[in-house]
Design a protein that fits this description.
By secondary structure, the protein is α/β, with parallel strands linked by helices. Helix content is 50%, strand content 11%.
């Protein structure tokens, strides 16, 4: 066993140096110790590498703003170690890393296991609000409720030491890195790309998982050409901790039988990956649960602008959703009709695509300016949405208070007083942890 810290990621090796490498990826809020019960058996066949997410488990607090960025850090770490090809098993956030590896770097991956994973984790709004809660209240509220999300009630009651360990693990995580990971999951969505995953894949889920449960697992199995489903009875989200023996057995069987060998293409000297085998059709294929029809949420088709200038609409709708939230934007666009649709298009293209997407000011500053302008104009009907946006853009309630106090001096006390009433209610709603 060896242990070290890398500028890219903090990692740990266990097992024989000459064995094939198997990487275990952690869930958000956990450390590599979530895999402790799997390691003794896995190291009989593999050299096991576990890593910590940034700011977790004492790892250097360099936030990763996207799953792709974390994958780049992982590959940089592996390149430094001389590890070119490996198997990978990841739980929850670690599963997102596994999907990103399979889609963007298939030549590195021999086999894949996705545990408590999903091609899209909840909604972007949910994770951005979690970031707001952590920014406002710290990690303690998230830490205290983690056992409810991670374990079944019976396990938590019977294993108080593990429950306490889980709470402390989250509580000692760097808040900035936790918030960045929430933002990464908010932006992660590979539902349309699952058919491109070309390695043998085990999809493993606890039967009682209320976070990424059997429905999400079946979506993965339906989309990935060579995927198999395993449902572990009596387990919730952190299934490797709650049912370690069952998970270990499934991982050993999967990686022992579904390790796809790489081979060197003689003309180029590069590693090539065989195509994934076609899955035999034994039963009717599992289809993902129906969702809102694409036509209901897709932005309206817009004609290209003249003179070859890039149309800012696509950038605008992306920024508008990131700042105001999917729920607000979907509701606003759904209310648009033939009369108001052109106005919504104008707002998306010019306010969001031209101004909010400019690089000259960061989003925190733009939120400060916007809040002040809304107070000055008495536009309280827009103030609630932009108070939520300010929280998502990184302003704390204390900083929003300072903006409104400044506005009171230059825009008038009555206008600022009304703004305080609106903002106070929004901040209460957005920053109160859900039990």
């Amino acid at each position: 066993m060896s242990e070290t810290k890398s500028p890219a990621l903090q990692y740990r090796f266990d097992g024989p140096d000459d064995a094939p490498v198997l990487i275990l990826g952690p869930s958000l809020g956990t450390t590599w110790h979530m895999w402790d019960r799997q390691v003794p058996e896995l190291t009989k066949q593999w050299r096991v590498l576990r890593f910590d997410l940034p700011g977790h488990g004492g790892a250097p607090a360099y936030p990763a703003g996207s799953v792709a960025e974390l994958v780049s850090r992982l590959l940089a770490t592996l390149d430094g170690l001389g590890v070119q090809r490996f198997g990978y098993a990841g739980c929850a956030f670690g599963g997102a890393v596994g999907l990103e590896l399979a889609l963007r770097h298939p030549e590195r991956l021999a086999s894949l296991a996705l545990i408590a994973a999903s091609p899209r984790f909840g909604t972007a709004d949910e994770f951005r609000q979690r970031g707001v809660i952590v920014r406002t209240n710290g990690l303690d509220p998230i830490a205290r409720t983690s056992p409810d999300r991670w374990f079944t009630g019976g396990f938590a009651a019977m294993q108080p030491a593990i429950t306490d360990w889980a709470v402390q693990m989250v509580r000692t995580t760097d808040p900035g890195c936790y918030i960045a990971a929430c933002e990464a999951l908010a932006a992660f969505d590979v539902r349309s790309e699952l058919g491109s995953v070309g390695v043998p894949t085990l999809v493993l889920v606890g039967s009682e998982d209320q976070v990424t449960g059997p429905a999400e697992a079946r979506t993965l199995v339906a989309g990935i050409p060579d995927a198999r489903l395993a449902v572990v009875p009596g387990a919730s989200h952190l299934v490797p901790v709650e049912q370690p023996a069952a998970v270990t057995d499934l991982l050993v069987r999967h990686f022992s039988t579904a390790w796809q060998p790489g081979y060197v293409e003689s003309s180029t000297g590069q590693i090539a990956i065989p195509a994934a085998p076609v899955k035999p059709l034994l039963t009717p294929p599992v289809q993902p649960a129906p969702s809102v029809p694409i036509a209901e949420i897709a932005p309206p088709a817009v004609p290209p602008q003249p003179h070859g200038r890039p149309d800012p609409y696509d950038a605008g709708i992306k920024v508008r959703r990131e700042v105001l939230g999917d729920a607000h934007v979907d509701r606003t666009l759904a209310q648009a009709d033939e009369f108001s649709g052109d106005f919504q298009e104008l707002v998306t293209r010019y306010a969001w695509g031209e101004i909010w997407d400019r690089p000259g000011l960061d989003r925190r500053t733009r939120s400060c300016v916007t809040l002040t302008a809304l107070v000055a104009g008495g536009h309280l009907e827009q103030l609630a949405a932009h108070t939520r946006a300010a929280l998502r853009n990184g302003l704390t309630p204390g900083e929003i208070k300072e903006v409104l106090l400044q506005a009171a001096v230059y825009c008038g006390v009555p206008a600022a007083g009304s703004a305080f009433t609106v903002a106070q209610q929004v901040i209460k709603e957005e920053t109160t942890p859900t039990e």
